[in-house]
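EI: anyone free to look at a 394-residue chain?
SC: sure, send it
EI:
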Amino acid sequence: MSAENSRFLAATQTLRFGAHVVAKNRMYFSSMGMDICDEFGFPKPEFFAVYQSLMAGGCGFGFLGNASVDANSRYNSCGLKLTSTAHAEALRPLFQVAHEQKFLLGVQLQHYGQQGIPSEETGIILSPSAIVSQLILDQYPHAHAVAMSEVQILRCIDQFSAAAHLAQQAGASLIQIQASNGYLVSSFLSPKTNQREDDWGGTPIKRAKLLLSIVDGVRKATGDQLAVTVRLGINDGLGEEGQHVELLGEVVAALEASGVCAITCSVGISETFRFFFKDRQKAQVISRGGCRYLKRFARIPIGFTGSVMDVAEASAIIEYGDADFIGFGRAMLADNHFIAKELSGRKDLVKRCRGDAFCFRDKKEPMAARVYCCVNPDYQRPEKLQQYYEENRT
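SC: here you go
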């Protein structure tokens, strides 16, 4: 091994998910919502092109992003859905390619909850305590959140279970339950948005009842044959009233006991993403410290996504022991093959993310047909839209 590649030893070791699923290294492409599906949630040809490119980019594993488990829950009109056998069949060719390439491909299961688009007819958004995102209210004044009833909560659990079964039918090797970034399951975990006094709120472990029930339902629906992972929000940026990692030790222990085989830590919600984007080092300090803290409560792999932009940095973090694996989002969006390039000594050829976070603006911008990138020529942002963002920075 060359002296250059010896720096990457920690990141290039295999990673085991449970007893039978193994990733070839400890770096993955995170569950980015690429928004290249039709209005019914079926992937367009560009969807397959992007993910095939990502699978060839040097990661050990990865996730299809933001597959909605509820046909009525969406972030925009171009997101992926996994609510029918037809959706599973549409994804099957991609999983077949993954198996042929011996690439560990999973799918993230998502319910947008209070950060989703409200129903056109009623304006209703599901939430734990009838608290709606201010950003959603600004965009959709008719929106109003309802505190979910027991029936609605149980239906949500069934939706995640059904979606996991569909992922299994499609050929997925593992799944990730989205429990971060202010979406439905995350909003149940946070004391800021979950103010319930029944069995679904009141203490950290009771606020985690929805997540733990989803894990149980997913394992039963799949015959315990899929590796189940969780993307867990550890800091929402809302201070002491919001979510912070010290509330989650007991929850992580319970997740391990429930059969979860890995946890990915994530920070921020829609109202606070920009603060984490503007200070990557601060976000990384929070993420590393959060992983380090939670590793005291469980033996399963715990890692984080976001804020790391190169292989050497990822490997150093893993070697230090703060995380067992590292996820890349915007870095992989900017250059699908950046990990392969760095591992082969071609670091100077990597197209680097500029850190403007314009790709996140694409998700809600009417002028954007999909999620673009400032630097990737395969889906570079149209010049007029790029100029508009440059002149109207938020």
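EI: Residues 150-170 form the longest helix (21 residues).
SC: 👍
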